[in-house]
Structures are given as structure tokens and as C-alpha cells.
Amino acid sequence: MTDMDMGTGTGMDTGAGTGTDTGTGMDTGTGTGAGTDTDTDTDTDTVSRRLRSGTRAWHEALETTGFATAMLAGTLPLDRYVGQLATYRVVLEILETELARATCPSVGSVWSPDLVKLPLVERDLHHFAALGTAPEPCPAAEEFTDEIRRTAATEPRELLGFLYVLEGSTLGALFLLRYVTEAYRLTDGNGVSYYGSGDRTRWAAFAERLDRALGEPDVQERVLAAAERAYHHVAVISRELSVGLDSPAPEPV
Ligand code: HEM
Fold it and tell me: For 225-249, what is each residue's pLDDT tens digit?
């Protein structure tokens, strides 16, 4: 992986070492991966840096979905936004249950109550249901929850790869928040409890706990592979939410 400046304004922008947000991308000064993302020595690299650089291509693909581009254009139909929340509700319920009951020390040292999102998504869904918008979750949610249960039973540490993707997505959601609020004329935080839940301090603490818990390169490899599987499921869900919206859905990388 070479250092690539993508400052195109919507994605993972690696503006070298400045720490300032130069577009809507990821600033490089805080949270995961200090300084520039250069060729990484996997033997000594932190898991949070490996996750960030190892999944960048997935992230870029997700930013080009019909769902994402319509959201950024302010043209995303409300039932797609609420459909995403309904789908994440199904996934988060299983993931958070399995993380909370895992007895594996690595999971125990990373998972914490301040990472719980289910009540936030449920609050948003109640808000829209009261307004008559209550779409079904995407069918692809089931494949993801089957994968979560299987992983919890066989390799619970890999649940941390799934958590990295979903917790990380709330950082980007902070950027998307104003597009959603404006598009649906939402007020007083109604309907955006989940999208508004991203928190850099919580993210930095989460990344630090991940790095402490997952030092062995082969374990990092498996958690990275799990994060890629989670991105695959999110890509399939995004494809289902993008049906009929003009730009084509991404092919999983
Ligand atoms: C239009 C769609 C999206 C945009 C514009 C976007 C934007 C961003 C931005 C700006 C950040 C960096 C935030 C920061 O460092 O403060 C970020 C981080 C992240 N996003 Fe997205 N995002 C999008 C979609 C997604 C989706 C659908 C997922 C997965 C479900 C996702 C997963 C992540 C992850 C895991 C991180 C943390 C990366 C790291 O620092 O290791 N993003 N996103």
C-alpha cells in the first residue's frame, strides 16, 4: 500500500500528517494511525492502522453507491434512509448481544457500554414509524447476522473486526448528518440519534483498546479479514438500498 492523496472531498483523504480534516475525509492526526499511512510493517504495526489501510478500498466503493451519492445529493428517498436504520437495527442487536456475552478476554477488554447503539437506532425508527414510514429491513441483514452468530461461536475475537466497521461508520455519519437533517427537514435531533452518535474521543479510546488487545500479527490478520467480511455484507445491503437509484451499486472489491 503506498501513500495516496485522494483529497477528492468525500472519502478517506490521507493528507500527510497534518491532522486537519481536508475534505470530508479522515484526518490523520488523531484516532487510528498517527501521521501518514506509509508502507506498513505488519510485524509491528497496530491493528487499527492495518484495519484502516487494509479496508480503504471497501470504504471508497461504499462512497460511490447509489444510496451514498443520493444521500450526498439530498435526493435519497426517506424510506431508503429509514430502511438502512431498520437493517442496522437487526445487525446491531445480534452483534451487541454477542459482544456483551463473549467470555473471550480480548473482546472483554475492547467492548464497553458506551459503544452500544441499538437504543439510538430504535429511537430513530420510532420517530419515523410515528410519521408513517416503517420499511422492512433489507433481506441481506440475515446473512450478516448468521455470520455474526457463526463467528461468535467459533472465533469471538473476530467480532472486533465487525465492530470496527460499524463503530467507524458512525464517524463518517457525523459528516453525513447535515445532509440527512436538511433532506428530511429533521429538527431537535429527531430521526438522527444514530447518525449523530459518532464521537472522535470514543473512537480514539476504542482504537487504543483494539491496539492493546490485538498485538499478534496473525490475530490482526484474522480481525482484518473479518472487517472485510463485514464490509462485504454492508456492500450487499447498500446494493439493496440502491436499487432504482441512478448510479450503479459497487462490485465488492
Ligand atoms: C457516503 C458515505 C460515507 C462517507 C462520506 C464516509 C466518510 C467517512 C469519514 C469522513 C470518515 C473519517 C472520520 C474521521 O476520521 O473523523 C470515515 C471513517 C470511517 N468510515 Fe465512512 N463514510 C461513508 C460510508 C461508510 C460506510 C457505509 C461504512 C461502513 C458501514 C463506513 C465505515 C467507516 C469506518 C470503519 C471508518 C473509520 C476508519 C478508520 O479511521 O479506521 N463508512 N468515513
Answer: 999 999 999 999 999 999 999 655 4
Q: How many CB atoms lie within 10 A of CB 223?
A: 27
The overall pTM is greater than 0.90: no
In which domain, by residue range, is 87 found? 62-242
**Residue in 41, 99, 86 with CA at minimum distance from that of residue 240:** 86
CATH number at residue 135: 1.20.910.10
| Number of domains observed in the structure of the chain | 1
In this structure, is residue 4 part of a structural domain?
no
* Angle, vertex CA 88, rays to CA 123 and CA 153, nearest 5: 120
Residue 50 inside a domain? The answer is no
Residue of minimum CA distance from atom 3 in ligand 1: 63
Q: List the residue whose alpha carbon is closest to atom 5 of ligand 1.
A: 10
Distance (Å) from CA 24 to ligand 1 centroid: 9
CA of 169 to the centre of ligand 1 (A): 5
